[in-house]
Structures are given as structure tokens and as C-alpha cells.
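Lab notes, practical 5.
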Amino acid sequence: MVTWIRGEELHRQAKEWAREHVKRLEEVGITPKLAIILLNDDPVELATQRRFASLKARDVREVGGEAEIYELHDVPPERRTKEALSLIESLNKRDDVTGVIIQKPVPPFVDERALFAALSPEKDVDALTPDNKKRLLDRFDLDNDVLPCTPAGILELFRMYGIEIRGKDVVVVGKGELVGKPLSVMLMQLDATVTVLHALSKEREPYVKRADIVISAVGRPPELYRDNPWRLTGEMIKEGVVVVGVGGKVDPITGKWHFDVDEKSVAEKASYLTPNIGGVGLATRARVLKNLIRTSYQVARLVVSSRIVGP
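Output from the prediction step:
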């Protein structure tokens, strides 16, 4: 019988922890404030990113912080990188903004590298600036570092449910900068044997069938994509596997979510499984709160005093 890997408790604990640290930060004159930048004008991506951004902003406000959402998807393509760089420069300089998320994916005509190179590493809630990426390659501390939110959230769920990673064969489907790539690095540092599959992989199912743990981070459900669609089903996995579903997209017409994992058929074979609603999404939001608190302390040390002690 499957055990559901739920994120509610992780999310609740993160909100309680963040609420306490918001009070501590306010004592030194800092209120955590998250700025989220939306750049993608693809209808599916925009609908999905708006949903993610609103949930993150709501969490921040519920713990006593503030949030701002900037939508630049209406800026003409030839000017969007320049406008985004100007906004990032402004947010870097603002002492009241303590964390920034550039919501991914960005459209292909936007210079993503330039954006993350321009973002202050101290305010980088998703840990995607060059400096933060380099730190991840060296080592990481799950409890104290600002880490990519979804990968860190998944590892926290594994720890909470006692799921062993060391020595396991893990397949990560998807090599994106936000989830697949950093997660594979983190899993290797934890002594897992990691295979990363993507759109150009010649074969996927044989690797998936052998895996002890499958993490699906594609976000191309067949309902919304004809080109390279993906969905993990029960017939593709072995008995007793641990399955984590990450990818999900919103239909801009109906507002309905569609996911990477066919929950019903996978639940018949998996030993552990994240629900499509209430699983990784909540773990990610929990980590956003934790990362924002940590970036807020970093800003407090720069703005108020280097002697400020925080997590």
C-alpha cells in the first residue's frame, strides 16, 4: 500500500519558524519583502507562473512579511531583457526588498544568464546566481544554506519520511536549471547513483523501470503539449519505487492543473508517492519562506549591522 509523501506539515513548520524570525528581524528595522518577476508571455507558462507567484506572495504575507509581483510579459521582446535588468538593478539597491525571485522559465529571447548575473547573491531566494551555483557544487547544508527551493524541499520530504537516498538508483526526468540540474548535483553529493533523462535521451523507460527513486520534473503534460509531452504511469515503474512528481502546468483556458504523474496508476505500484496537490508544491513554498528569511538576515547584516545573528 502506498504511503503518501505530503508537504502540509513541512509547510506548517516553515510558516511557524518564519513568523518567529519576521518578529526578530522587525526588532532591527527589517521587514522581509519578496519581489517576484514574471517575464514569460507564453499563455500556459504565464498562467502557471501567476498561480505560483500568488501562492508564494500569500505565504509571505501570512507570516508578517511583504510581497511585490512585477509582470513584464507585456514588454516587447526586443526590450524585455533591458527592462528586466533595470528592474533587478533597482531591486538590488532597495534596502526594503530582502529577496528576489526571477520566475522560471523565462522566454528564450530573454538573456537569462545576464539576469541572474545581475541579481545580488544576497537577495537570491532561488539560489540561481553564479555565486550561489558555485557553492552548491562544492557542498551544501540542508538546514542552513540558501538552496534551490524545490530540490531542497524534496530532500526535506525524504528526511521527514525516512526515505534513504544513499546508494539508491535515482532517475531525475528533466534537466532544468530550477529543479533537475541542481537536484541531481545534490543527490550525487548524498551518494545516490543518479541518471538524468531529458527530451533528447534516446531511451527513457528502461532507466525509469530500474530506478529505486523516480523524480519527474518535466512539466509538459499531454493535455497542453504536443511536442515532447511527458507523463509517468504505473506501467513504467517497478514495484516498490519511490515517486516524486514535480512538473505541473495550468491550462490558461480552463484554469485546471495538469501534472507529470498519473497518480492513480502509479499509486498501485509505488511504496511512496507525492500527491499532485499537497506534495512537492507545499515543500517548495516552505523552502521559499526559509530562504527569504535567510536572505533577509543577509540584507540586515549589510544594511544595519554585520553583527546581526540569524539562521
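Observations recorded by the TA: Residues 173 and 201 are 10 Å apart (CA to CA). The first strand starts at residue 3 and ends at 4.
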